[in-house]
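Morning!

This is the sequence you dropped in the shared folder:
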Amino acid sequence: MKNNKGFTIVELVIVIAVVAILAAVLIPTFSSIIKKANISADMQTARRMGVILTAEKPIGPREAVDALKANGIERLEPKTKYYSFFWIKSINAVVLTSEGVRPIYPEALATRPFDPDDWFDLTNEYAKTEPETEAPPETEEETTAPPPEYVTVTYTCNNPEYIAQSLESVTIKYGGPCRIQINVAAGGQYTITKYIVYQDGRSVMRSDGNELGTGVGFGASWGELEHNIEVYINVVEYCIINFDGEGIKANKYKHRGLHVEAGTDTVLDADFLRENFIPDGCEIESVTVQMGDVTLTDAYDPAKQELRLQNVTENVNVTFVFKEK
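The structure's back. Tokens below.
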């Protein structure tokens, strides 16, 4: 007589535990591989867009978007979540930025400071040019599923400790109004640099990329909320680079400084210095840089005519002395 023996409880628990461990190890690995593949694809797209715009020479963001559409770029939204494509008007270049409007490609522009008057979010500009399409009317044969009773609003944030309130998911009655108001924490130099609203995995609302230090939050509202949405907020701590010197060309930097994300490197190249600080007919004789209580002696490179500030963790004071050429 055969003795058919099944699995014991202990054996089943061991199998489940092994499967859980494998899942915990492999899922993050697969996610990382997918993200790397998406970033690589986004870099190639940014390179292609840069080539197109170099040939087209657009004069504004709308013309840049039209040129990309005419040359076969169907979507201007990166595959990598929370990344963006920006067009820098002054140098006619496209950059791929990660969270916090931080350029990661091309590498030559990785340390270029963000300028809201010069940087344009191509995804946002593309959305402005898309024609509104009406849904086809329903026929009598078509049947629709009943709507859900509730929808949810889910929040994610890169630095939730910089936000004034707790970012808890909320449940809204289907078709009801929804109001979002997110503010940064008090007592520090924090700002929201970007927010994106996702509906069914596709962004439906996004900021243009706010200049660091100019805002304390953002608000959005819907009259009839009929979809689950996810709101991503990018908030950073920032430092202020203050500039002084007799005859500085751009008063906006003298009066309110340049805001940069804390802990990052900032390079102001010769073109940027010449455009915004050096008076016509003059050149820089010397530069004094003070970060907190520390005087930086090698921040300015006279050979390259660039100002390099590494790991900016405190407010910085830069004083120029000019001389006639």
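Headline: Residues 206 and 269 are 30 Å apart (CA to CA).

More detail when I'm at my desk.
O.
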